[in-house]
Amino acid sequence: MKSTRLNPFQVFRDQWAIMSLYERFEQVVALVLSAVIAIIIVVSLFQVISIVFTLLVLDAFNPLDHKVFQRVFGMIMTLLIAMEFKHSIVRVALRQDSIIQVKTVILIGLIALARKFVILDPEASPAKIAALAGATLALGATYWLLRERGDRAAATSEHDPSSSQ
Asked: How far is CA 71 from CA 32, 46, 80, 135, in A?
Protein backbone atom coordinates (compact mmCIF):
# COMPACT_ATOMS: atom_id res chain seq x y z
CA MET A 1 0.00 0.00 0.00
CA LYS A 2 1.51 3.29 -1.12
CA SER A 3 1.38 6.33 1.15
CA THR A 4 -0.27 9.47 -0.23
CA ARG A 5 1.62 11.68 2.21
CA LEU A 6 3.79 14.28 0.51
CA ASN A 7 7.52 14.41 1.09
CA PRO A 8 8.19 17.66 3.04
CA PHE A 9 11.42 18.30 1.15
CA GLN A 10 9.62 17.97 -2.18
CA VAL A 11 6.92 20.36 -0.99
CA PHE A 12 9.63 22.80 0.14
CA ARG A 13 11.38 22.58 -3.26
CA ASP A 14 8.10 23.08 -5.12
CA GLN A 15 7.24 26.14 -3.02
CA TRP A 16 10.81 27.50 -3.28
CA ALA A 17 10.57 27.41 -7.08
CA ILE A 18 7.59 29.78 -7.14
CA MET A 19 8.73 32.17 -4.38
CA SER A 20 9.85 35.71 -5.06
CA LEU A 21 13.30 36.84 -3.93
CA TYR A 22 11.88 38.47 -0.81
CA GLU A 23 9.80 35.40 0.06
CA ARG A 24 12.95 33.27 -0.22
CA PHE A 25 14.79 35.72 2.04
CA GLU A 26 11.92 35.58 4.54
CA GLN A 27 12.00 31.77 4.41
CA VAL A 28 15.77 31.61 5.07
CA VAL A 29 15.48 34.08 7.97
CA ALA A 30 12.62 32.05 9.50
CA LEU A 31 14.60 28.80 9.21
CA VAL A 32 17.77 30.33 10.72
CA LEU A 33 15.82 31.95 13.58
CA SER A 34 14.03 28.68 14.22
CA ALA A 35 17.34 26.81 14.48
CA VAL A 36 18.89 29.43 16.77
CA ILE A 37 15.86 29.47 19.08
CA ALA A 38 15.81 25.66 19.15
CA ILE A 39 19.43 25.66 20.35
CA ILE A 40 18.61 28.28 22.99
CA ILE A 41 15.62 26.22 24.17
CA VAL A 42 17.67 23.03 24.49
CA VAL A 43 20.48 24.79 26.39
CA SER A 44 17.93 26.56 28.63
CA LEU A 45 16.11 23.30 29.32
CA PHE A 46 19.33 21.63 30.46
CA GLN A 47 20.10 24.64 32.67
CA VAL A 48 16.63 24.57 34.25
CA ILE A 49 16.92 20.83 34.91
CA SER A 50 20.40 21.30 36.36
CA ILE A 51 19.36 24.18 38.62
CA VAL A 52 16.19 22.44 39.84
CA PHE A 53 18.17 19.24 40.51
CA THR A 54 20.81 21.22 42.40
CA LEU A 55 18.17 23.06 44.43
CA LEU A 56 16.16 19.90 45.06
CA VAL A 57 18.95 17.50 45.98
CA LEU A 58 21.83 19.60 47.23
CA ASP A 59 20.22 22.72 48.65
CA ALA A 60 17.08 21.18 50.16
CA PHE A 61 14.69 22.88 47.72
CA ASN A 62 11.89 24.67 49.51
CA PRO A 63 9.26 25.68 46.93
CA LEU A 64 7.57 27.88 49.52
CA ASP A 65 10.63 30.11 49.75
CA HIS A 66 9.69 33.23 47.76
CA LYS A 67 13.11 33.78 46.18
CA VAL A 68 13.51 30.13 45.12
CA PHE A 69 10.00 30.02 43.67
CA GLN A 70 10.57 33.24 41.74
CA ARG A 71 13.83 31.97 40.32
CA VAL A 72 12.54 28.55 39.22
CA PHE A 73 9.21 29.80 37.91
CA GLY A 74 10.89 32.69 36.10
CA MET A 75 13.22 30.27 34.31
CA ILE A 76 10.32 28.01 33.34
CA MET A 77 8.26 30.93 32.03
CA THR A 78 11.23 32.22 30.05
CA LEU A 79 11.60 28.79 28.47
CA LEU A 80 7.89 28.71 27.60
CA ILE A 81 8.12 32.16 26.01
CA ALA A 82 11.06 30.99 23.87
CA MET A 83 9.09 27.92 22.83
CA GLU A 84 6.14 30.08 21.78
CA PHE A 85 8.46 32.30 19.73
CA LYS A 86 9.85 29.20 18.04
CA HIS A 87 6.36 27.86 17.37
CA SER A 88 5.32 31.09 15.66
CA ILE A 89 8.51 31.15 13.58
CA VAL A 90 8.09 27.49 12.54
CA ARG A 91 4.60 28.32 11.25
CA VAL A 92 6.19 30.97 9.04
CA ALA A 93 8.87 28.54 7.86
CA LEU A 94 6.18 26.01 6.95
CA ARG A 95 4.39 28.75 5.01
CA GLN A 96 1.28 28.44 7.17
CA ASP A 97 1.30 32.08 8.28
CA SER A 98 2.85 35.38 7.31
CA ILE A 99 5.89 36.74 9.15
CA ILE A 100 3.82 39.29 11.11
CA GLN A 101 1.42 37.69 13.58
CA VAL A 102 0.03 40.52 15.69
CA LYS A 103 -2.15 38.36 17.94
CA THR A 104 0.75 35.97 18.61
CA VAL A 105 3.07 38.85 19.51
CA ILE A 106 0.43 40.29 21.87
CA LEU A 107 -0.05 36.91 23.57
CA ILE A 108 3.71 36.49 23.97
CA GLY A 109 3.80 39.97 25.52
CA LEU A 110 1.06 38.93 27.95
CA ILE A 111 3.02 35.82 28.90
CA ALA A 112 6.12 37.94 29.45
CA LEU A 113 4.14 40.34 31.68
CA ALA A 114 2.73 37.40 33.65
CA ARG A 115 6.31 36.20 34.16
CA LYS A 116 7.30 39.68 35.32
CA PHE A 117 4.50 39.69 37.90
CA VAL A 118 5.68 36.33 39.25
CA ILE A 119 9.32 37.38 39.61
CA LEU A 120 8.49 40.90 40.76
CA ASP A 121 10.51 42.08 43.73
CA PRO A 122 8.30 42.34 46.85
CA GLU A 123 9.65 45.84 47.44
CA ALA A 124 8.51 47.04 43.98
CA SER A 125 6.98 50.49 44.00
CA PRO A 126 3.22 50.90 43.54
CA ALA A 127 3.90 52.95 40.41
CA LYS A 128 5.82 50.05 38.85
CA ILE A 129 3.04 47.60 39.70
CA ALA A 130 0.42 50.00 38.30
CA ALA A 131 2.44 50.43 35.09
CA LEU A 132 2.73 46.66 34.65
CA ALA A 133 -0.99 46.24 35.36
CA GLY A 134 -1.82 48.98 32.85
CA ALA A 135 0.35 47.36 30.19
CA THR A 136 -1.29 43.99 30.86
CA LEU A 137 -4.75 45.54 30.63
CA ALA A 138 -3.87 47.36 27.39
CA LEU A 139 -2.46 44.22 25.77
CA GLY A 140 -5.46 42.16 26.92
CA ALA A 141 -7.91 44.72 25.54
CA THR A 142 -5.99 44.93 22.26
CA TYR A 143 -6.02 41.15 21.89
CA TRP A 144 -9.75 41.05 22.68
CA LEU A 145 -10.49 43.74 20.09
CA LEU A 146 -8.42 41.96 17.43
CA ARG A 147 -10.17 38.70 18.18
CA GLU A 148 -13.60 40.34 18.03
CA ARG A 149 -12.70 41.91 14.69
CA GLY A 150 -11.54 38.54 13.36
CA ASP A 151 -14.68 36.80 14.60
CA ARG A 152 -16.90 39.43 12.96
CA ALA A 153 -14.97 39.21 9.70
CA ALA A 154 -15.31 35.41 9.71
CA ALA A 155 -19.04 35.62 10.44
CA THR A 156 -19.52 38.20 7.69
CA SER A 157 -17.65 36.11 5.13
CA GLU A 158 -19.72 33.03 6.05
CA HIS A 159 -23.03 34.85 5.54
CA ASP A 160 -21.98 36.93 2.51
CA PRO A 161 -23.16 35.13 -0.65
CA SER A 162 -20.69 37.07 -2.83
CA SER A 163 -17.71 35.69 -0.87
CA SER A 164 -18.50 32.06 -1.77
CA GLN A 165 -17.69 32.46 -5.46
From this structure: 30, 15, 14, 23
